[in-house]
Design a protein that fits this description.
Length: 356
Amino acid sequence: MSRGNPAQVKAWAKRRLQTRLARAGYLVSRLDEDSVRYLEPSYNGDVPLPAGAEEALKADNPRLAELRTAYEALTWPAAAPTQWNESFLKKNLSLAWFRGDNAYVWQLRLQRGSADATTYLTLLDVQSRDKLGLLTTLEEDGLFGAWTFTFGDRPPVSRDLLDSVNEINYLDDQIGLSSMEAPTVLDIGAGYGRLAHRMSAALPNLARYDCTDGVAVSTFLCEYYLSYRNVPDSVRVVPLPDVDTLADSYTLVVNVHSFSECSLEAIRWWMDRIGERDVEWLLIVPNTPGVLLSTEADGSRLDFQPDVEGAGYVLVDHRPVFQTDELRELISLDDEFYLFRRSSVADSSSASSASS
Ligand SMILES: C[S@@+](CC[C@H](N)C(=O)[O-])C[C@H]1O[C@@H](n2cnc3c(N)ncnc32)[C@H](O)[C@@H]1O
């Protein structure tokens, strides 16, 4: 690790210990250094699966088999998962309950103390910046195993909803996404399509949202989920073998908890794909605070910020995802936004503001 001060590294090491336990399939509600106090199930089965879901979301689904074969035939670094290998997926994913607490969105893991208190504080933090009013327009139905929380008369919320509302408001605040004419987004490592679903419902001006991924099962779930949600035609799932069909330009590339789970070689490969296109903004949410680290096959982690900068991007904003200082202390989630802008545009815009 070439960046990060000792306190950050210590916090990161502690988090990594918790992470390893969580990845072994355990929800660690309280961690006492070397003992797991109690465990909880990994999805909320209160809302039954919709008709046909159990039959479709099976390991032997022919579309999943087709995607797996196509991904396995690729020799590109992005198709060689490090963290997202078969054994990780076996321990961390229940296919039909893909919106539970699992590899895609950690809803209960790593939350010290009570999950409902933490979620409530997170809601207060997110609500304080919800200029677009998305907490009143976007809904959470708890389908596919998502843990939901209801407070007073408020509509239910989930980690999926809160993270998405927070990300969309952040992007609106920073780059004016909601008032742009026909913005376009590429989501690399899109998971089951969480942000595509939310952003396409939140922003009527969105002209295109392309989801891609290096892992076949993620593409399979993304296709299933976005079709189930009946998203507009502007949303597309682009399997990795079809990466050449991506557009020539995007307003924004988003990468939420994804590059952190890829090798440096895969990240460089994706940065090359971005570099081939006209992309002004790049949002990265890493898994490690204060530093952008990859996950290599041997478990080591390498700093990839120089590669992002080397591809012509400059960091224009870096801040905690949850921004109310006193609430963040209690929430104990230390995710951060890293917003990059293509340096040629960033330089010309700072030159013009200096001269005006
Ligand atoms: C923690 S999930 C995050 C999903 C989504 N971005 C979200 O925030 O809901 C990590 C994602 O990275 C994807 N991923 C893993 N290795 C990848 C690779 N080599 N290239 C692209 N995506 C990859 C996984 O398939 C998964 O969709």
